[in-house]
Amino acid sequence: MGERKLMIINDNSRMTYELEKCFKSRDNYEIVFKAANSEEAINYLEEGHSPDVILIDMLMPYCDGNQLLYILKKKGLCKNTTFIGISPLYTDEAMTLAQVAGFAFVIALPCSANIIAMRVDQLMDIKMGKKSNQLLEPMGIDFLQYTDCEDIVRQYLVHMGMATQHSGFMYAMAAIKMYVDNDGTKNLGITKTVYPEVAKMYNTNARVVERSIRYAISYAWLNGDMELQHNMFGYTVDSNKGCPTNKEFLTMIAEHTRLRLKTNLNRYKN
Fold it and tell me: N or C end of the chain: smaller count of CB under 10 Å?
């Protein structure tokens, strides 16, 4: 594999050092430039450089990652570059802003430089030809036997990499079941309906439900099988999208569950 040209934009010198050391230990990356802020990055890119991938600290002062991408788009720079963000802020609102800005992926902090490098590698491998436009197929013969909605949802979440011990796992299961059971007559707004109803089930509040589901998704995206995730959520990890929002994740799993439940029940009838 040829070397991928990597640029790092981060105002934390310690993090930059760890990332540089980690990527240099791999034989398929060349670090072409390190910028401590957006101004340095723009000056470098305006010289005509176009790295294969740019790893950006989303919360830099003065000009954050989203603002930087808007500037680059306005200037017509790096049209074929993959932008990957790193951020400790991982709410639905933050992910939506990152998606609109043009991030291909956002890696949740805290995590090690090695994990960041692994995620960058996986995403770039997919973009270089391993990605699939097919929807996720059932995982194993055992998966085909389930005719209970809850069992199917649990299998999907586990195979996506979501940890069962997280409270977000049970909140996600309850929310997905609400979407599956909805026959279209009820408007299930995630903020006004889903989060509050799940919160009532578990004697907590809607904000805790939203944050717990977001954490569970981010954990899955960091630790799960990225190629498997891409098969189901490919449109959310292409060059213009990032990690799916809570609503995207929950409704997509619900749709697959609904289809799988119908297929499994028909199989038993026949």
Answer: C
